[in-house]
Amino acid sequence: MAALADHTDWHDKTIRTLLNRLLRKGALTHERDGRRYLYRPAVRREDYVSQESRSLIDRLFGGRVAPMLAHFREHEALSDDDIAALRKLLDDIDREEDGA
After folding, report:
1. How much is the CA Rg of the chain, to the nearest whole Å?
2. Are 43 and 31 in contact (CB under 8 A)?
3. CATH code, residues 45-99
4. Coil vs helix vs strand at 75
5. What angle do CA 51, 55, 58 make, to 5 degrees?
6. Which are the contacts of 68, defined by CB distance < 8 A and separation ≥ 6?
7. How confident is the model over 64-83, as a mean pLDDT?
8. Which tens digits make up the pLDDT trace of 17-73?
9. What residue segments make up the domains of the chain, in order of their start?
10. Phi-psi domain of 70 (left: phi exceeds 0; alpha: psi -120 through 50; beta: other)
11. What's the Cα-to-Cα distance from 24 to each of 21, 28, 29, rounded to whole Å?
């Protein structure tokens, strides 16, 4: 709790409530270490990001990636680096499909 308290203006009770909710949802695990508890994420970051990304695409773009990219093209400034990375990704996908 001290780590969160140092970075937020939340009260101890608010932090305890948040931790307990995350424990109940299975997002955190904890173990006792003397008089304190050590909290750890129950899910790997990679798994969480994958699940949340899929959920976002499903909810906002009907499960399709192309409309999401079209949205970014129309409403956000895609840098030359972003565009190059997307082209490389698509080229890699094409190569994998041709080799499969």
Report:
1. 21
2. no
3. 1.10.4040
4. helix
5. 140
6. 57, 60, 61
7. 91
8. 999 999 999 999 999 999 999 999 999 999 999 999 999 999 999 999 999 999 988
9. 2-41, 45-99
10. alpha
11. 5, 8, 9
